[in-house]
Amino acid sequence: MTKLGMGMMRLPLLDENDFKSIDYDEVNKMVDLYMESGFNHFDTAFVYHEGIGEESLRKAVVERYPRDSFTVSTKLPLFVITEESQLEPLFNQQLENCGLDYFDYYLLHNVSGFTENAWKNVDLYSFVQKKKEEGFIRHIGLSTHGNAEFLDGLLSKHPELEFVLLQINYLDWEDEAIESRKCLEVARKHNVKVMIMEPFKGGFLADVPEEAEKLMKDYNPDKSVVSWAIRFVANLDNVCLVFTGASNSQQLEENIREFKNADPLNDEELKLLEEVSEIINNNITVDCTKCRYCVDNCSSNIDIAKLFDIYNKHKLLDTDEWTPHGNAYLNYSKLPDVGIASDCTDCEICIEGCPQKINIPEVLKDVAKTFETGIYGFENE
Q: What is the C-alpha to C-alpha distance for residues 2 and 208, in angstroms, rounded to an integer?
């Protein structure tokens, strides 16, 4: 049976420009709401919230609830691993960060070309298998944004893996780069369970274009936009958990309500979602889910995810005039010690880490052209 998991990648903040400024009053409220609703699985990672993601789990969950009342998944940060000697101290640090004696689910984080130095040159699989035998891990798996062929190769080579975390949503279902449907079929073939991330595609499917929303409402005025995305993933075979990654208690409350009422989509509704996907794809300028992996690797200190979010919202208005989003970019540029789009050096390190395979430097050039010339006055400064 599919359950709703609480992803802790995009927690509420006291300062939107400081990803370490977690609003614990709001997070605690969310955790309590989630637990009271009958769910109990929390997902985090070493790199979330600029390195304090696991600490936030400890404060909001582990220190406030008995250990047998919840389960946890976290991830080995392959991004930083270059040699085997790092594994033991890093794993122990994660246990300490989370305040736990063991992890229920432990993943190799983002197995991809970006992290191949770790998974090709360090025996990660033997390490996690050993930790499982020692009782520090209950179940081992991995997350990946690779395509179906890549996933098939991983699961063929490593039958010890018990589950995978995959990006699945109706927008990516038939996408030629993401291959959500094909990846799910590969997991089924290897008889491994699937956890789902990005069911809302970084928020795109919770706030669709008006034309797409009208299609949904005309078909069923009682169903919210969010419900369509949740119903799609909640009824897929072989899926054990869906992480929605809410950023406040209102979002989480809606996710819980819709998940509990997630009746299967019929053939007409699935066909309608194909039309909705086409509309969304025609309106999205940058296919960014705000995972922030690019931000962690930017030598120019550009908050790429934030700028792409501003840029997407500005582009949806289809105007060369002033917009609130252009003003938001201007406000961002005034912050101390931040890089703006034109500061990009074309080093392309960000591309290697992008799960959506966006040509980030090229897009940043257009972001700079959009917001750093003309009415926003950058060229006059």
A: 25
Q: What is the pLDDT of residue 190?
A: 98
CA 226 to chain centre: 16
53-75 in b/e form (b: 16+ CB < 10 A) is: bbbbbbbbbbeeeeeeebbbbbb
CA distance 200 to 207: 9
Judged by DSSP in three states, 182 sits in: helix
Among the listed residues 258, 205, 26, the one whose alpha carbon sits nearest the alpha carbon of residue 10: 26
Of 347, 367, 355, 370, the C-alpha closest to 292 is 355
DSSP helix/strand/coil, 144: coil
CB 349 within 8 A of CB 79: no
Residue indicated by tokens 């960060």: 97
Q: Are 302 and 340 in contact (CB under 8 A)?
A: yes
- What does the pLDDT average to over 38-56? 96
**Residues counted in the chain:** 381
Greatest Cα pair distance in the chain: 64
For range 263-280, the mean pLDDT: 96
Intra-chain end-to-end CA distance of the chain, in Å? 58
**Alpha-carbon torsion 32, 38, 42, 43, what sign?**
negative
Answer yes or no: is pLDDT of 56 > 90: yes
Cα 133-134-137 angle, rounded to 5 deg: 75
- Which residue shows structure tokens 């972001």? 367
Q: Which residues of 169-207 are buried (b: 16+ CB within 10 A; e: fewer)?
A: bbbbbebeebbbebbbebbeeeebbbbbbbbbbbbbbbe
User: How many Å apart are CA 34 and CA 184, to the nearest integer?
Assistant: 27
Contact 194, 228 (CB under 8 A): no
378 pLDDT tier (thresholds 50, 70, 90)? low
| Euclidean distance between CA atoms 140 and 31, whole angstroms | 25
89-131: per-residue pLDDT in tens? 999 999 999 999 999 999 999 998 778 889 889 999 999 999 9
Closest CA to 233 of 289, 272, 178, 194: 194
pLDDT digits (tens, 9 = 90+) for 182-199: 999 999 999 999 999 999
